[in-house]
Design brief:
The complex is a heterodimer of chains A (446) and B (172). Chain A has 446 residues and is α/β, with parallel strands linked by helices. Chain A is built from 19 helices and 16 strands. In chain A, helix 5 packs across helix 7 (179-188) and helix 17 crosses helix 18. The mean pLDDT of chain B is 92.
């Protein structure tokens, strides 16, 4: 552990700096020294330190002020204040300002060893905590990946084979099909699983915000940049970065992204220090990226850089056999989260769900089930608890002609206005269907 | 190995033999009469280990591969209340003192055997630093960091296997 911990010693007395330097080097820590607060802050702008030991009384800027500035630069640093003059007031103030501890010079050798050991233990615990949090989130996400259809089995096979590599992946699929779940599944089955999976929703951010989000920024880079901030690429070091809605990024960001993918290094906004990060890229889009390349709306070189592996998730309407499994999964999920007894679904309601188009895919189904559990009778999900149930029930009170017109229209839409397939589904011949289309004035909408 | 202050020859011989066995270097003992006044801090009533080490490191002792000076005085460095010894990592010089290794300092009965065992461990530990060895976490290793005499008593006077390998590699 010791060799991973970096320590910065800030003291105006050379003998103190040398003594501490020797002491920590013998313990195997990585140590640097600064003779005043200004030099220390300059060093901190170039690199991060895990532990900073700072004298409270120094010419120019005192340790307390420096501590405040360090915290503004890097909130994660552990700052230990040293002083030759013990005073309860300054000790209390230092601790209130977030100092890890406060020691009076000269220290007992054992105190110093304990202090550093405790700080190192805290750093290790924090890292472990973050890794575990990321792991727990990933595991939850995998549980949500439900399905036994051939289409889903194919996707799972692709996930399994692509997870072991480091290749970039593009996940395509309609909105709500579970592109982020696939990204999480790839990450959690890869060797990078103990490092973070960082998600960025590119479509939700403006160009400048996305730039700052991805690359991070230095303090003062723009209005509101009150402290240094790590970018998502930096945070994804060792792990995976998931760029959702990649098709929405601007041409400028496409160039920047291409450069980062090629060099795995970048500079924070407003900074001049080159930062390197080891990450894997997974992108998702619901648009036809290849078509965008052909139209000149997406860079070809970036497309080929990202599109090493392509995984296409089928829409829910193409895997209706998974609907019962998904329904029972969501019932279990929401009954548990709402602390309710497990309920069932009326077969008629399930049948309606299996026939429904689901333009919003699995997400829409999930929302429907959640809503049905909330408004239902607490024992069984009925057709009336589902949004399309109301429509089905209300349509029954209208005229027979109107019902026929709606049904034919629904079937035509379902089969993409393929008259032969629609006629077969309706169990009538094509001529009859053409007559009905003419009679009811049905027209294909764009 | 230099000795500054009144030490029995047998005491020094036993330390030299132990160091010789551990590092397989020939160890010679020599008396020195360094004026310690410039290193005395009257406010702390202790001697500045950093300055002493710096002085010895600056002296030319080309006939020796390593130099350790043994004292009977209370050593300190500015940041710590006391030290048992000090070395320049990976360089030629080290210092050690038996002052805080004595049982009498802690109100216990004088025990020469314990004192010599502690002195051997301290000298080998500091010499280990001059050979580039860092503090070791193995409980019995002589390179384990010791802040109290009880810690010194807990460890052996030998390098653990890992430190032994590092030492041998450093010799190549």
């Amino acid at each position: 552990m010791a060799e991973k911990i970096s320590i910065l010693i800030v003291d105006d007395e050379e003998s103190v700096r040398d003594s501490l330097l020797n002491w920590f080097i013998e313990d195997g820590y990585s140590v640097e020294c600064a003779e005043n607060a200004k030099k220390a802050l300059q060093l901190l702008e170039v690199r991060d330190f895990d532990i900073i030991l700072a004298d409270i009384k120094m010419p120019g800027m005192d340790g307390m002020e420096m501590h405040r500035r360090i915290k503004a630069l890097n909130r994660d640093s552990i700052v230990i204040i040293m002083t030759a003059f013990a005073s309860v007031d300054t000790a209390v103030q230092a601790l209130k300002d977030g100092a890890f501890d406060y020691v009076t010079k000269p220290f007992d050798p054992d105190d110093l060893s304990h202090l550093i050991r405790n700080a190192a233990a805290q750093i290790a615990l924090k890292g472990e905590n973050e890794a575990l949090k990321s792991r727990v989130t990933t595991l939850e996400a995998i549980d949500d990946f439900i399905g036994q259809s051939d289409a889903i089995r194919k996707v799972l096979d692709q996930i399994e084979s692509v997870a072991q590599s480091n290749s970039s992946v593009i996940i395509t699929g309609e909105s709500g099909t579970g592109k982020e779940l696939v990204a999480r599944a790839i990450h959690s089955n890869s060797a990078r699983r103990y490092f973070p999976l960082i998600s960025v929703h590119c479509g939700a951010l403006t160009e400048s915000l996305l730039e700052s989000e991805l690359f991070g920024h230095e303090k003062g880079a723009f209005t509101g940049a009150t402290f240094n901030r790590k970018g998502r690429f930096e945070m994804a070091d060792g792990g995976t970065i998931f760029l959702d809605e990649i098709a929405t990024i601007s041409p400028k960001m496409q160039i920047e992204l291409l450069r980062v993918l090629e060099t795995k290094s970048f500079v924070r906004v407003g900074g001049n220090r080159e930062i390197t990060s080891d990450f894997r890229v997974i992108c998702a889009t619901n648009r036809d990226l290849k078509g965008m390349v052909e139209n000149g709306n997406f860079r070809e070189d970036l497309f080929y850089r990202l599109n090493v592996v392509n995984i296409t998730i089928p829409p829910l309407r193409e895997r209706t056999e998974d609907i019962p499994l998904l329904v029972s999964h969501f019932i279990k999920k929401y009954c548990t989260s709402m602390s309710r007894d497990l309920i069932t679904i009326d077969p008629a309601a399930l049948k309606h769900l299996e026939k429904f188009e689901f333009p919003g895919n699995v997400r829409e189904l999930e929302n429907m089930i959640e809503r049905a559990i909330v408004i239902g009778n607490g024992k069984e999900i009925k057709l009336k608890d589902l949004p399309m149930g109301k429509e089905a029930i209300s349509s029954s009170v209208e005229s027979l002609e109107e019902l026929e017109k709606r049904h034919i229209e629904e079937i035509l839409i379902k089969y993409g206005w393929n008259v032969s397939r629609s006629a077969r589904a309706l169990n009538v011949d094509r001529v009859t269907l053409y007559n009905k289309i003419r009679k009811y004035g049905l027209k294909q909408k764009d | 190995m230099l000795s500054n202050g009144p030490f029995e020859k047998e005491f020094l011989r036993r330390i030299a033999l132990a160091a010789e066995a551990e590092f397989r270097y020939q160890v010679s003992t020599e008396e020195c009469h360094l004026d310690l006044n410039p290193y005395y801090n009257p406010a702390r009533r202790q001697y500045d280990g950093n300055k002493l080490l710096h002085h010895l490191n600056g002296c030319t002792h080309n006939e020796y591969d390593r130099l350790i000076c043994l004292f009977r005085i209370d050593l300190y460095i500015p940041i710590l209340t006391y030290i048992f010894g000090q070395a320049v990592l990976g360089e030629k010089t080290a210092i050690a003192s038996v002052y805080r290794l004595r049982n009498e300092l802690y109100g216990l009965k004088k025990d020469e055997d314990i004192l010599i065992a502690r002195a051997i461990k301290e000298v080998i530990h500091e010499l280990g630093h001059t050979f580039g060895l860092l503090h070791c976490h193995a409980p019995a290793c002589v390179m384990r960091s010791s802040t109290y005499v009880e810690d010194i008593d807990q460890k052996t006077s030998s390098l653990c296997n890992r430190c032994r390998v590092l030492f041998e590699e450093g010799q190549k």
